[in-house]
Design goal:
Low-confidence stretches: 1-36
Radius of gyration: 27 Å
Mean pLDDT: 82
Distance between the termini: 52 Å
Helix content: over 70%
Structural class: mainly alpha
Shape: rod-shaped
Number of strands: 0
Order of helices and strands: HHHHHHHHH
Number of helices: 9
Strand content: under 5%
């Protein structure tokens, strides 16, 4: 199946934060890990901020899979709908074309539906209506993808917050011990700082890549489908003498 490579990539993307961060936790908190499992120590050192970042990675994975499934050529403009619409235009059955747009809403039919009511108006008015609908439908797709951009920006900021929180904890420990704190006492706070930083970056990098990939796909498909719609309505363009 064509979707299998995407789903495999999404699965790797989902597991990457946990795998990479767990490796980082093992290196940063090796002394403390002897008293418990690595996974338990990892979650303990990650703290609340780390759990929030992991939750964001799950949300991001869900959004990436959802958008990969939605932003496809056969979803935005199903070939059978395009063929049926072309047949209706060839036959001059424009009322049936309007009804088809109403019963089968998608990116393609929503744009066509904007132009059909303008058949009795000037071609410029029809063209303007189509262009406005293309822009509106494309903005809707970009708006959905903006959540990925938000997560990609928030994740490293949360990681930085965890870093600052961990360092504050380490200095508090030093102050409480009047400067006599040993490295194993400070290891937990330092590990937490490093883990949250790593988690934030490991989430942000693949989410950013996914966002750019999907954004470029939206641009490509919107141009392609706009050209199909333009060809449909080109028959109404006034012929110069």
């Amino acid at each position: 199946m064509k979707l299998r490579p995407y789903l495999i990539s999404a699965a790797v993307f989902a597991l990457a934060p946990l795998a990479a961060a767990q490796d980082g936790a093992a290196a940063a908190a090796a002394p403390a890990a002897a008293g418990g499992s690595k996974a338990g120590q990892f979650f303990t050192n990650a703290g609340t901020i780390g759990m929030v970042i992991i939750a964001l990675s799950v949300v991001a994975l869900t959004l990436v899979i959802k958008e990969i499934m939605a932003v496809r050529r056969d979803q935005l403009a199903p070939p059978e709908l395009v063929d049926e619409m072309e047949a209706l235009f060839e036959a001059g059955e424009y009322q049936e074309a309007i009804e088809l747009c109403e019963t089968e809403p998608c990116y393609f039919t929503n744009i066509v539906a904007a132009g059909l009511p303008k058949l009795n108006a000037s071609f410029d008015a029809m063209e303007k209506s189509l262009e406005e609908m293309v822009e509106e439908e494309t903005v809707k797709l970009h708006a959905r993808l903006s959540w990925l951009s938000l997560i990609a920006g928030v994740a490293p900021m949360l990681g930085l917050m965890g870093t600052v929180n961990g360092m504050i904890g380490a200095f508090d420990t030093i102050a409480a011990s009047k400067g006599q704190a040993t490295p194993d006492v400070l290891a937990g706070d330092i590990a937490g700082a490093l883990i949250t930083t790593l988690l934030g970056l490991v989430v942000a990098v693949p989410v950013t890549a996914s966002f750019v990939f999907l954004r470029n796909r939206v641009v490509s498909y919107s141009l392609e489908i706009s050209a199909v719609v333009e060809d449909l309505f080109e028959r109404f363009r006034p012929r110069s003498a």
